[in-house]
Design goal:
Blueprint (H helix, E strand, L loop, with lengths): L7 H18 L2 H12 L3 H5 L6 H27 L3 H26 L8 H21 L4
Helix pairs in contact: 1-4, 1-6, 4-5, 4-6, 5-6
């Protein structure tokens, strides 16, 4: 059995991209103000900042997501052949719909806020997965 070949530098860059996208997406001048209203935050509650462990956790989770996407892209490439970039994008979008978006929808179905936050979470995650797939796809393993 082969172990997926993964470009660690592409995974690290994809992790960084996830952090940048999240920072921009949730900025109050972009979509942060709408997200704050949907989730029930106020300027005061956000200004207190997150707990100290939140950002390290987010970085680890982004790294794991990029690592899994890179491995799944390699498996897809080995199976289908063709363009590594196209395989990575399609694999990322399939995993996004099948795992990320479907689980967010199930989670939000039980949230007292309903589906007010779902579009924000879904769109942010779609942007992140697409960026990760682009980075990993244009920088295949050697």
């Amino acid at each position: 059995m082969d172990v997926p070949a993964i470009n660690l530098w592409a995974v690290l860059l994809a992790t960084l991209a996830a952090m940048v996208i999240g920072f921009v997406y949730y900025h109050p001048k972009v979509l942060g103000a709408a997200w704050m209203r949907a989730i029930g935050h106020t300027t005061e509650s956000v200004s207190r900042g997150p707990k100290p462990w939140v950002y390290p956790l987010i970085i680890v989770c982004a790294f794991v997501t990029a690592w899994v996407l890179a491995g799944a892209a390699w498996i897809s490439q080995e199976f289908y052949g063709g363009s590594f970039l196209l395989n990575t994008l399609i694999t990322g979008w399939i995993l996004f719909v099948g795992f990320t978006l479907s689980r967010v929808i199930v989670h939000d179905a039980f949230d007292p806020r309903g589906f007010r936050v779902t579009p924000h979470t879904g769109f942010n995650e779609l942007l992140i997965i697409t960026a990760m797939a682009l980075i990993i796809g244009v920088w295949p393993p050697a």
